[in-house]
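Our platform keeps sequence and structure together, in a single record for each protein. Such a record has a labelled line for the sequence and another for the backbone structure tokens. This encoding replaces a full spatial description with a residue-level series of whole-number codes. Below, we set out a record of this kind in full and without editing:
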Amino acid sequence: MTSHELSSPGLGDIVARALHEDLAGGDVTTEACIDADMVARASAVARGAMIACGWPVFERVFHAVDSSLAVERLVDEGARVANGATLWTVRGRARSILMGERVALNFVQRMIGVATMARTYVDALPAGSTTRITDIRKTTPGLRILERYAVRVGGAHNHRDNLASAVLIKDNHIAACGGVRVAIERARSRAPHTSKIECEVDSLGQLDEALAAGADIVLLDNMNDETVAEAVRRAKGQAITEASGGITLARIPALARLGVDVISAGALTHSVIAADVGLDFA
């Protein structure tokens, strides 16, 4: 899957649920005010600078409402667009356009917000940096595939998709097992041989224990820059380093210069402000 592809399994169900939520009882305003044979053209217009994202969902919503609608994409996914730019258009029955308008905009405004945030974090990396910016699982319940897609469109990467995707030993796993080493050893003995073992550590002592136990990836949790620098030095050649916890946009350049391989930030999805996109009738 490339960064600008949105897998179809599940997308139809997400759209159907949203449309049912809005249209289960019909649209009394539209049906009362708009003639059934009226035809219109509407444009999705950016109200500010942003990263274009959400075309597959925009198209899917309107076609789910009325398959005869003509939906056109005017800019590529991931393109930087300026205030006033037209992203997409939809033409056909005015009633159908009005019935799909709010659901389509709710989806794409959120997705554009995520994509724009992701691009901002990626742009903060120093020139030539090989550090990877990733999301985490702090996504809106039921909308993960859309938000993870938006992260990719913004130029960042995805962490594990769900709990079955990878072994990631967190602080509560360590507490329940009785220590870093025993948690890693249990994971190593029971996980598929194809799985890498990632372990969260919050101190240099835990880091040393994780490295000695053979962790493939160490998640440096809520460490200050000085501790991160020492952790990267100790892990070099032994494990991939991932900085996480309390990650802000302002810290990205410094963390990348310290040499961490991955910076994972929940802010890419959980702290996003929806973009302002309007659907203007012609």
Observations:
- The mean pLDDT is 96.
- Residues 106 and 259 are 38 Å apart (CA to CA).
- The domain at 11-122+272-281 is CATH 3.90.1170.20 (Aldehyde Oxidoreductase; domain 3).
- The first helix runs from residue 11 to 23.
